[in-house]
From TrEMBL:
The lineage of its organism: Bacteria, Bacillati, Actinomycetota, Actinomycetes, Micromonosporales. It comes from Micromonospora lupini str. Lupac 08. GO terms for biological process: polyamine catabolic process. PANTHER family: GLUTAMINE AMIDOTRANSFERASE PB2B2.05-RELATED (PTHR43235). Residues 70-89, 228-249 are annotated as: Disordered. It holds the Pfam family Peptidase_C26. SUPFAM superfamilies: Class I glutamine amidotransferase-like. It comes from the Bacteria. GO terms for cellular component: cytosol. Signal peptide: none annotated. This is Peptidase C26. One of its GO terms (molecular function) is gamma-glutamyl-gamma-aminobutyrate hydrolase activity. InterPro entries: Class_I_gatase-like, Peptidase_C26, PuuD-like.
Length: 249
């Protein structure tokens, strides 16, 4: 059986390798690629591009990766002094997300990706979480993951996907404040939203942690399984939209 193709959104950052220093490069941590491959998928790296979502015609699933902050203008706020956004990523990923929802492509949002999902569905973000919870527990030190308990809404996609998971890793300074039209399905002990989903679609899930760096990366295999089911199901109609209707964004 052909491996399902999973698009992973990437970012453009200055990078160093060999004799080159500070060269702008399209980047995504290899952990995402390894997790998709281990789950039986084929990873396709997607640079920021807001021209159109045509690439989704050849993909079976979309993974919105973590990274810099979502621009606060996208949800009607002024920037916090600690906010560092990437307008090119916002534009490119929202183009992909809108097109993915239009054809019910399975979508997994990781960390920033979950926050982008919430914004696309009409939600808002806490721009600097320590201002809300009073600690740096969700990002304890530069480049150092924290860990904390998590609980899931019974019967939700998150609960079914992550049955038995009681702790997750943590590295973020922003978080979902309001989920818009998404359902909240996971929480940290301090009330921070850890999972969101769209119950009206086959697979639209956001997780605030980084499953690609967890010993138990279940959200990513779940995405690959959903992509495989879609690839083997009824074809998309002539208009490019499945029976579920227009996108929510």
């Amino acid at each position: 059986m052909t491996r399902p193709l999973i698009g992973i959104s990437a970012y453009v950052e200055p990078a160093d390798w060999a004799v080159w220093r500070g060269v702008r490069a399209v980047l995504v941590p290899e952990a995402y690629v390894r997790a998709v491959t281990a789950a039986g998928g084929r990873a396709v790296v997607l640079p920021p591009d807001d021209s159109d979502g045509d690439v989704l015609a050849v993909l079976d699933g979309l993974l919105l990766a973590g990274g810099a902050d979502v621009g606060p203008g996208r949800y009607g706020q002024q920037p916090h002094p600690r906010t560092e956004d990437r307008p090119d990523r916002d534009a490119g990923e929202l183009t992909l997300l809108t097109a993915a929802l239009a054809v019910d492509l399975p979508v997994l949002g990781v960390c920033r990706g979950m926050q982008l999902l919430a914004v696309a569905y009409g939600g808002t973000l806490h721009q600097h979480l320590p201002d809300v919870v009073g600690t740096e527990a969700h990002r304890p030190a530069p480049g150092v993951y924290g860990t904390h308990p998590v609980r899931f809404a019974p019967g939700s996609l998150a609960a079914r996907t992550l049955a038995g998971v009681a702790h997750v890793n943590s590295y973020h300074h922003q978080a979902v404040a309001t989920p818009g039209r998404l359902a909240v399905s996971g929480w940290a002990a301090d009330g921070v939203i850890e999972a969101v989903e769209d119950p009206g679609r086959p697979f639209v899930l956001g997780v605030q942690w980084h499953p690609e760096n967890e010993p138990d990366p279940r959200p990513i295999p779940a995405l690959v399984r959903a992509a495989r089911r879609r690839a083997s199901g009824p074809p998309v109609g002539a208009e490019g939209v499945r029976a579920a209707g227009p996108p929510a964004v």
